[in-house]
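Action item from last week, closing it out:
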Amino acid sequence: SFDATELSGQAIKNQDEAILLARTSGNDLLEFMVLSRQVQLSYLMGQHQRGDAFRARSDNTVRSMASSPHLVSHVAYCALNCLALCASNSPASKRNSSHYKTATRLFKKLHHWRDDQGYKYCSHMIDLVQAEFYRVGGDFNSAQRSCEQAIEDAEAQGNLREKGLAHELLGRLLMRDQQDEMSAAQHIDEAMQAYHAWGAVALVNRLLDSYGDILPENPEASELVSSFVSTKSNEPNVV
């Protein structure tokens, strides 16, 4: 057993210390990242006033620094994390949650960087976040098109991480919301290939654990993923 309140309090204490270290080192990007995490943690614990205060500090920090690919990526992933906490096809009343509002605010920031400041490397991240907004709103066809556009843009930029993520999100969408196992398996296969090429073996294994049962049904399975599935199936069961 454990005391959830005590653990949450310790997490906040550690994050406060991280903010102090980032500030004293002059690392604005690190400070922004920790502040963003504090916003999420505070809202998850129901401490909305604290979350609002950290959000204001986060906005001030990001205004003081030049935009960069790393910052864009972090903001997009924060938005994706918030939307992952929202169920598919949520009614409008459910989309008034703090998670949805935070994702909307971050999404506007991404659009500002791309449309007003010319940061073209935002495009595939915007497509990914847009796909999640469509999913939450129940527009699964538009979500699929946004994922496909993100895959195309990420591939054009040679970005293996986001290419893998876009394939993974599309695979999850097809599996969970459209019940299309064959198409889902193809995209999970593509995600595993991209993650493996990026060097993220842990992500490959996570997908294998979650979707290993549908991957053998993919008639166009890659040699790489087929070997992973075969190895996994031959592992002895240890009780």
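Closing note: Confidence is low (pLDDT under 50) at residues 1-8.
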